[in-house]
Design brief:
Elements: H1 2-16, H2 26-30, H3 39-46, E1 50-58, E2 62-71, E3 77-86, H4 90-105, H5 124-137, H6 142-158, H7 163-179, H8 187-200, H9 205-217, H10 222-235, H11 240-252, H12 256-269, H13 274-286, H14 290-303, H15 308-315, H16 317-320, H17 324-337, H18 346-354, H19 359-368, H20 374-383, H21 387-400, H22 421-430, E4 436-437, E5 442-443
Antiparallel strand pairs: 1-2, 2-3, 4-5
Helix pairs in contact: 1-4, 1-5, 5-6, 5-7, 6-7, 7-8, 7-9, 8-9, 9-10, 9-11, 10-11, 11-12, 11-13, 12-13, 13-14, 13-15, 14-15, 15-17, 15-20, 17-18, 18-19, 20-21
Amino acid sequence: DYFGDGLSEELLNALAGLDDLRVAARTSSFAFKNRGVDIRTIGDSLGVETVLEGSVRRSEDRVRVALQLIEAESGFGLWSEDFDRPLAGILALQDEIAASVVSTLLPRLRGEDAARVRGGTADIVAYDEYLLGRQKWHTREVPALREAVEHFRRATERDSSFALAWSGLADAIDALAFRDTSELKLVPEARLAALHALALDPELAEAWASMGMLAGEFDWDQPLAQRALRRAIALRPSYAHAQRTLGSFLRNLGRVDESLRHLELALQLDPLSGLIREAYALALHVAGDKVGAREQYEIAAELAPAAGSGAAIVWHAADLGLTADEAAQAAVTYATAAGLPEAASWELVGRGIVDPSLRERARAFLAEAPELDEFVRHQVSLALGNHEAAVEYLEAQRAVGGGDLHRIGVLPQYDPLRRHPLVLEIVRELGVPNGYDPVARAPVWPEPAG
């Protein structure tokens, strides 16, 4: 399964490197895997004219890939072929398949214009580890992220020239340290990994995006973060992850109109990504479009109910105008999908966010809730009006240099704390706004200290 996912993603990236093609990104494409959905429905959902589908079978030393290129509107096959190759030649096979598809779709392209897989390896064991790492990185779940770090480490140990694996290691550590501050000690390793990937391949879009994420989240070097992410996008405009990250950073700086443009591009590339949909919803929310934001939060929760995308509509429930019943249902849906103990009891949390008379009981339940992501716990606690706990969380983030601090500048959930001395100190230190005025469509800057 992971091998098929990895091969699909690498083919997707190779084809997306062509200016002539717009290719739906990984999350959206993979949403239809093994579901038997009609090709016309897939084409409409992704906004594409053609669909490449196939299967992969792997033996100990060989791989067989059966592919078909289909016109989405008519369902007619445009091209089909079976590839049976030695496993050691998998990267050459990806190039061969990409060139065959390109020659079918764009016959006027010269052969040398066909995209090539960048930053790869000839070591099949290293490649296996890389594919497993990417699969687990996409989950954004802390236990899986820890495993992803180890997979990428093993890939780089097998082949130290494997640039994509070094970039993957940086991405996995970034995602892990953002969600678990006990792993912040790994961030220096991530910085070195991103730099090593760039040294190996200065035109690897993934490596530039890795550097940009780390610079923005843990160094708070926004000029470097934006330059690196814009370089990633210039090298690969179809890289939805880079578009989303840049859009999120611009939103946090109060540049909401710019942010929305990048997030809309990211959604065009990957319309079924809960992570991107949530980022877009949050930008709309900051901009004051609560109707549009609620709609997007609801879609994000459907796409990724177990992740932060599923929890976001819960902690924003009161501000978005959800009823107590709606908030209760959203909370139970999230807790159930996330596999939390006593999921049905999360009804109290949802109701408490909307109904102040229930907040004390909901806070008591939340305080005892085990196995809960610390970021989600903080956001829900803040929504329940527990400002003391929220301040403690921010103090802890500030003490260790946590990546979450860069978000507090304009997000609506922090509005009740805008006058708190700690929040004022943080926004001044980071050089970020202290709120956003949706009427003026402009950030609110804090008064200078003293």
